[in-house]
């Protein structure tokens, strides 16, 4: 038996000549039957295994089979592309200086709510490392997250609302008036008055407005055409539609500008004598005797109006409008009192009203004039903010104290054009208070645009990471032992994201006699007195601490339980917690009411899989910690902890080249700004800064698929459909998609047809979710410069499982 192996990291299989039982037996019989052998020996080659000689050869053939099997396995474990065991891959990767990635702990942001009841402290100190547990779902375990920094929380910063209302400025031709609140009792047909300080000041002047006073016409009286009450998160609003628009009567330049107020004139009245009989019809008749007809007109000089009926709601210094046909005049009531009157052949109760001016009174006739009175102010100072909240500046309700510079906050709100609630972390750059509002400048613009009424800024926010702190006595030091090893009691060890080339750092602190020792990758460069140790991670996740031998690294001194460790446990997918699930405070600081994570946890990554290691280890050997070429940038980013896929493109913007690196998270999840920032820091330290670098989150194009299958009668149709869905999700889902690739209906057809139990299937129909039109070919583009002057990231095609429709063929 002989072995001949050849291969490398880029070869999926090795060329190896093995000798299984049948091959070994055939070879030995061939030697016996060779022409140079005696005839008796050649005849022996034809005997069966019942012959003792042939039985002996058969036994040795079995030995060859066993040896061949293990020889082949050993040979496969010697090459990166064919190794099957994690330990083999780990040792092979270490030969090129690459360590399998241990995984990354999930990150999140916690928002604390401070008790705001009377007597409660307004300021609360939340310590770093405060544990918060999740409320587990079914078949899940609670997970612990710990705050990453100390937090000074204020009750005033619990949930700061954005300014959702702006000063309402009524301009010419406006046909909409907004009122704060609802339930104002307005209906279509009611009259509203828009008047400002210009006309109000004239009313206070002796004699009121005079001919030639232009400001006397700076008002508008309109009839409400429609009333719409709108209820949103911040309260109610009422929308009044009027006609014609503001300024229609006296011109666009004759509208109120200063201290504009809106009133509803709730009462309509007539002048006394409107129903009086015509004097011409009564001439010569007894009932006409003694009737006074000489003052049927309005008393202009006395500026007095006689309103028919008793109107107790009218008050001095309020407004009334006289209307006759298309003529309208505004007056301010000076005096008002109830009276009785008998003239014009009528008698009854009246209300005597004197007004501020006699201007225009003579234009109204007692029989035709209509009085609009009982003016009630409406809350029209503000209007709802329809402009979206976004960018790097926020208008918020003022707080005491204001938000300090450098403060981490969480901006929450419903995105414009959709009902989903989004959460974005931001950092305060500056905060300026002006009256009841404050302007908050952020260090960078928000990604989204939000409906102002839904925006809340959570000012008591702090970053947190997955992992529970453990304090352990590792053991007693013995200076006689070389390379002493101590195991951690709990696993898996938490690794946090960082801006180093690997993207992770461990949370282990080892102290000997109270002195902290530092971790190194190996003892090769360690001096005899260096207080260092090496972290050893087993394939099952167990972690051990190994000290030096006194030549390469110091030995820990002899002592009784003098080696201690402080570390955290928890990593990877276990930290995937939904929004709102982190709500249990195992240690509740005084005056903290509750805590929550407004968004899902992010940036977690599982320990590196075997297939990932086969790809990443050679990339590490190619880059050697440097990024020079475009491919180096892609390899560097792909090997960064928390990154699932990466692509680098050299893009020309018309003036210069931009090296665009597009990244996608593990399992096709989006990457956070924090991960991008750490990756940028690591890349900038490893590259030549001559070329402009742009780091972009991937643009995922989700699409759906529809296919009909005919299941084999021997299979359960439901099970076949499920197998088809699982196959497509596994091969086309977000975790397996690649940048700038294509998906064809024919390729999907082959995938479906190869599923066991599928006898036949139709040509699949593919359609992007945003443009649901059936297509045979879907394309994803690389990073590119757009005509609008922006850099677009590389695209990824991802099959959306909830848009996968599998039907049975008729």
Unreliable segments (pLDDT under 50, ≥5 consecutive)? 1-9
Oligomer: single chain
Instruction: Give the N-terminus to C-terminus distance in angstroms.
Output: 58 Å
Q: How many beta strands in the DSSP annotation?
A: 46
Write up this protein.
This protein folds into 7 domains: 21-84, no CATH class; 107-157 and 575-596, no CATH class; 160-164 and 385-459, Elongation Factor Tu (Ef-tu), domain 3; 165-382, no CATH class; 468-569, no CATH class; 625-697, GMP Synthetase, Chain A, domain 3 (2-Layer Sandwich); 699-808, no CATH class. The model is unreliable at 1-9 (pLDDT under 50). The two termini are 58 Å apart. It is an alpha+beta fold and 810 residues long. 16% of the residues lie in helices and 35% in strands. The strands form 11 sheets. A 10-stranded antiparallel beta sheet has the order 8-11-10-9-12-17-14-15-16-13. A 7-stranded mixed beta sheet has the order 25-33-29-30-31-32-26, with no helix packed on it. Strand 14 and strand 15 form a beta hairpin. This is Baseplate protein J-like domain-containing protein. It comes from Actinomadura namibiensis.
């Amino acid at each position: 038996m002989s072995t001949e192996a050849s291969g490398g990291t880029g070869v999926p299989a090795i060329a190896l000549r093995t000798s299984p039982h049948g091959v070994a037996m055939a070879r030995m019989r061939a030697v016996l039957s060779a022409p140079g052998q005696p005839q008796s020996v050649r005849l022996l080659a034809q005997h069966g295994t019942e012959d003792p000689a042939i039985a002996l050869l058969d036994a040795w053939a079995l030995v060859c089979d066993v040896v061949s099997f293990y020889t082949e396995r050993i040979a496969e474990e010697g090459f990166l592309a064919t190794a099957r065991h994690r330990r083999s891959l780990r040792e092979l990767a270490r030969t090129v200086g690459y360590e399998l990635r241990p995984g990354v702990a999930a990150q999140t942001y916690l928002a604390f709510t401070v008790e705001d009841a009377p007597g409660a402290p307004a300021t609360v100190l939340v310590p770093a490392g405060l544990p918060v547990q999740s409320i587990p779902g079914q078949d899940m375990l609670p997970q612990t997250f710990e705050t990453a920094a100390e937090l000074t929380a204020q009750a005033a910063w619990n949930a700061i609302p954005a300014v959702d209302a702006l000063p309402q400025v009524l301009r010419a031709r406006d046909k909409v008036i907004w009122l704060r609140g609802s339930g104002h009792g307005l209906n279509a047909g009611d009259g509203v008055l828009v008047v400002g300080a210009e006309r109000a000041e004239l009313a206070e002047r002796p004699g009121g407005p005079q001919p030639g006073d232009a400001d006397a016409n700076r008002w508008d009286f309109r009839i409400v055409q429609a009333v719409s009450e709108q209820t949103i998160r911040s309260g109610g609003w009422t929308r009044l539609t009027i006609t014609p628009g503001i300024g229609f009567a006296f011109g666009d330049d004759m509208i109120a500008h200063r201290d504009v107020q809106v009133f509803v004139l709730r009462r309509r009245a007539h002048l006394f004598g409107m129903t009086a009989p015509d004097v011409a019809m009564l001439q010569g008749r007894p009932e006409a005797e003694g009737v006074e007809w000489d003052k049927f007109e309005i008393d202009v000089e006395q500026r007095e109006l006689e309103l028919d009926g008793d109107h107790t709601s009218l008050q001095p210094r309020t407004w009334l409008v006289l209307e006759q046909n298309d003529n309208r005049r505004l007056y301010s009531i000076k005096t008002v009192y109830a009276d009785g009157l008998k003239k014009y052949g009528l008698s009854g109760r009246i209300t005597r009203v004197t007004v501020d001016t006699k201007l225009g009174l003579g234009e109204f006739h007692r029989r035709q004039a209509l009085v609009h009175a009982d003016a009630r102010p409406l809350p029209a100072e503000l209007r709802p903010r329809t402009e979206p909240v976004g960018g790097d500046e926020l208008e918020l309700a003022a707080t005491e104290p204001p938000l300090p510079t450098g403060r981490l906050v969480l901006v929450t709100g419903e995105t414009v054009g959709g009902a989903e609630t989004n959460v974005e972390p931001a950092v305060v750059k500056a905060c300026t208070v002006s009256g009841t509002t404050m302007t908050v400048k952020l260090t960078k613009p928000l990604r989204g645009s939000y409906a102002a009424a839904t925006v809340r800024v959570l000012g008591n926010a702090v970053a947190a990471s997955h992992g529970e702190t453990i304090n352990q006595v590792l053991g007693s030091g013995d200076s006689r032992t070389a390379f002493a090893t101590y195991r951690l009691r709990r696993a898996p060890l938490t690794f946090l994201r960082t801006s180093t080339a690997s993207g992770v750092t461990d949370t282990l602190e080892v102290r000997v006699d109270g002195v902290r020792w530092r971790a190194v990758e190996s003892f090769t460069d360690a001096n005899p007195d260096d207080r260092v140790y090496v972290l050893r991670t087993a394939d099952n996740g167990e972690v051990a601490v190994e000290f030096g031998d006194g030549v390469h690294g110091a030995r820990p001194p002899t002592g009784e339980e003098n080696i201690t460790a402080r570390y955290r446990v928890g990593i990877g997918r276990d930290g995937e917690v939904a929004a709102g699930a982190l709500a249990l405070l195992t240690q509740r600081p005084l005056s903290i009411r509750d805590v929550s994570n407004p968004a899902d946890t992010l940036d977690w990554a599982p320990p590196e899989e075997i297939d990932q290691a086969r790809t990443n280890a050679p990339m590490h050997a190619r880059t050697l910690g440097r990024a020079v070429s475009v491919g180096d940038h892609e390899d560097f980013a792909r090997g960064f902890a928390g990154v699932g896929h990466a692509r680098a493109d050299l893009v020309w913007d018309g003036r210069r080249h931009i090296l665009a690196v597009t990244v996608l998270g593990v399992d096709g999840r989006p990457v956070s700004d924090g991960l991008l920032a750490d990756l940028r820091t690591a890349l900038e330290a490893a590259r030549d800064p001559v070329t402009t670098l742009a780091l972009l989150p991937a643009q995922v194009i989700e699409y759906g698929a529809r296919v009909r299958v005919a299941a084999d009668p021997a299979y359960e149709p439901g099970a076949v459909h499920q197998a088809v869905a699982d196959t497509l999700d596994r091969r086309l889902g977000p975790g397996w998609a690649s940048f700038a690739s294509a998906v064809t209906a024919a390729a999907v057809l082959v995938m479906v047809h190869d599923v066991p139990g599928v006898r036949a299937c139709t040509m699949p129909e593919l359609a992007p979710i945003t443009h649901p039109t059936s297509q045979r070919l879907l394309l994803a583009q690389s990073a590119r410069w757009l005509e609008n002057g922006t850099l677009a990231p590389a695209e990824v095609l991802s099959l959306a499982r909830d848009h996968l429709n599998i039907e049975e063929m008729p």
